[in-house]
Amino acid sequence: MLLNIDNDYNRFRQIIKGKIKDNLKKYISNGEMVGRKGKDLVSIPLPQIDIPKFRFGNNGRGGAGEGEGEEGTPVSGQEGEEGSGKAGNQPGHHLREVELTLDELAEILGDELELPNIEPKGKKQIVSRKDKYTGISSVGPESLRHFKRTFREALKRQIVTGQFNFEKPQVVPIRDDFRYRTWKSTAMPESNAVIIYMMDVSGSMWDDQKHIVRLETFWIDTWLQYQYKGLETRYIIHDAQAQEVDRETFFSVRENGGTVISSAYNLCRQLIEKEYPPEEWNIYTFHFSDGDNWSREDNKNCAELLKEHILPKVNLFGYGQVESTYGSGEFIDFLEENLKEYETLVLSYIPDKEAIYDSIRDFLGKGK
Length: 368
Prior knowledge:
Layout: H1 2-22, H2 24-30, E1 41-47, E2 95-101, H3 102-113, E3 125-137, H4 147-161, E4 180-200, H5 207-227, E5 230-238, E6 242-245, H6 247-252, H7 261-275, E7 282-289, H8 296-310, E8 316-322, H9 331-339, E9 345-350, H10 356-364
Parallel strand pairs: 4-5, 4-7, 7-8, 8-9
Antiparallel strand pairs: 1-2, 3-4, 5-6
């Protein structure tokens, strides 16, 4: 019975994954999963899917309760109680919420976008410990007693000492016969990686543009966390000046100043040089902007910083340009014209939420 339930549940999970994969582009652009992200799980509303449940038969129609009362009496005992809301005449939208782990979500993302697994570049590694049962000992906790080995030791002892009766076989272990499982801790090296996010928060970047950035960074995080067990994340915001902030500030702050993109690139360079040597770390940098920069001279400063200090050291530098009514949108063209020969630079134009799907493929599709 239990095996059948497990099989049914596993089949249901496969149906769920198939539905999510079929509608992944819609979920990515609408952000339905992002708003419900918990510590380890993401809840995904899925229409028109019946979740397996127990159904009671006709036996025992009287119910499980005891005591006074007639069939059909409300549990509260208050008949005719009316709700406080107004009646409507429109059908409701029936949604179920199904929870997936972030690893399962990353697998779906990788399958749908055909993302290659990343080959780690940096040598810096964290070490996790994995326990594996590898031997047998004569001492140990009762919870780890090995019953077959204990029985075997008792049988050997009784045969050797002549205590075993072949006509009436009976094996009775004594304390010296007890055997216990033993374990060995194995070091599991895992590559380290860091993501450095940069975002323009000047007056031309509105909430709609920041919402696009929030959605896209969620999926980038999900994929890279799936690829690396040791992942750090840093956040840099900039207008005319740059500063490092926490995640909440990164997505909520808004400034009214101008835009000097080189200020963010210079702070990113300092972080890498101070804390993330490229021979030890896998480094991912992403910059989101509306493409409006203070001057062409600062564009040249950005190019110099990228060429000399950032692009040679990172696995990937992704520049995502969101469309804004007030932004000039020239910066992505400048990068295309002046830095197109650098393989670690990936450019992506993101005019609206529907373009996030293709932008994720742009950034992550090369397996760097």
